[in-house]
Write a structure and sequence with these properties.
mainly alpha; elongated
Length: about 80
């Protein structure tokens, strides 16, 4: 019987650096039969001010929308969701 495994790896890097690292490892991730990637949080939120939560905007300290889109496109081309 095939067992499902979950591997949690946490990175506290800006998205721009994280995406470069993940993009470079997509082939290795593919060999491990990983089906999806969970990334985040990248949203903006001012400390102690919940009404400022914006789930549609990437926090500039975490990276750019272009870096995020590039990572998603490359992951999708490798069959990752």
């Amino acid at each position: 019987m095939l067992k499902s495994h979950r591997l949690d790896i946490s990175f506290s890097l800006p998205l721009s650096l994280l995406s470069v690292g993940v993009e470079a490892k997509l082939d290795n991730i593919n060999q491990l039969k990983v089906k999806g990637l969970v990334l985040g949080p990248f949203h903006t939120l001012q400390p102690n001010n919940p009404p400022t939560l914006d789930l549609k905007t990437i926090d500039p300290t975490k990276g750019t929308e272009d870096a995020f889109v590039s990572l998603l496109e490359k992951a999708h081309k490798k069959g990752k969701s």
